[in-house]
Amino acid sequence: MIVAFLGTAGSGKTTITGAFGRYLEEQGHSVAYVNLDTGVKRLPYTPDIDVREIVTVEELMAEGYGPNGAIVESYDRLLPEVEKIAEKILKLEEKKECTLIDTPGQMESFLFHEFGIMLMDRLGEPLMVYLFDPEILKRPHDYCFVRFFALMIDLRLGTTTVPVLNKIDLLENEELERHRKYLEDIEYLKARLKLDPTMQGLLAYKLCSFLPEVSPPVRVVYASARNRTGFEDLETLSYEHYCTCGDLT
């Protein structure tokens, strides 16, 4: 099975890729690692496939590109190699029980670049793990945003996407329970949004009103790379995804 980690810079993709991989290995599973980040300096795992062998942001900056331009250019240069990279990943999947893909630190360079779309399209039915940080969950409409953003990833990449609230070791129990209530109880979220007089609140209320109609059957995972909370749930979801063709209720 193939599991890819996607999220904004600082959401913990690389850390959780390494930690979840070690967890699986300790459970007796064989694991392969794929690094798709052209700008990363150090990794907490040894990649079986590493796009830095083809191009790095550092090399491009030495050519005169700025940091952002170098990131975009690196994926432009990887695009002709996408078929070969996909073939290598599929070969790893044949040999290993689980292949973990660590996507770029700057999420937009994968999600909004043709390289990411073409690669995911060639990997069959990979499970996408969308990591989001508790820091962005301040107001009721923020919860609506993360639920719909997971759907937008589905739409953009054609993958089954599992929303994962990461870094929950930083939360008090009361905070975590509040997040659970907003993320899992759509009727509670709608009731809170109905009290919000802002345009954001109105938009979020209308969106959440038809969320059950458009949302695939997935559940939110609460995780921490530090103490491995949620890793068992994530492992279970990964196997369910490959056994039930995406029904992750």
Structure description:
- By secondary structure, this protein is α/β, with parallel strands linked by helices.
- The chain has one domain (2-54, 83-247): Rossmann fold.
- Helices cover 51% and strands 13% of the residues.
- It has 12 helices and 7 strands.
- Strands 3-2-4-1-5-6-7 form a 7-stranded parallel β-sheet, with helices on both faces.
- Helix 4 runs parallel beside helix 6, helix 7 packs across helix 10 and helix 9 (186-194) runs antiparallel to helix 10 (199-209).
- It is globular and about 55 Å long.
Keywords:
249 residues; 12 helices; Rossmann fold; globular; 13% strand; alpha/beta; seven-stranded parallel beta sheet
Compute the number of strand runs. Answer: 7
Number of domains: 1
Calculate Rg over CA atoms: 18 Å
Structural class: alpha/beta
CATH class: Alpha Beta
The biggest beta sheet reads: 7 strands, parallel
**Which residue ranges are poorly predicted, with pLDDT under 50 across at least 5 consecutive positions?**
none
The outline comes out as: globular
- Number of DSSP helical runs: 12
Second CATH tier, the architecture: 3-Layer(aba) Sandwich
Helix content: 40-55%
One letter per element, helices H and strands E, the order comes to EHEEHHHEHHEHEHHHHEH
List the helices and strands and how they pair.
Elements: E1 2-7, H1 13-26, E2 31-35, E3 49-50, H2 57-62, H3 67-78, H4 82-95, E4 98-102, H5 108-111, H6 114-121, E5 127-132, H7 140-157, E6 160-165, H8 173-184, H9 186-194, H10 199-209, H11 211-214, E7 221-222, H12 231-244
Parallel strand pairs: 1-4, 1-5, 2-3, 2-4, 5-6, 6-7
Organism: Thermococcus guaymasensis DSM 11113
GO molecular function: GTP binding; GTPase activity
InterPro entries: Gpn, P-loop_NTPase
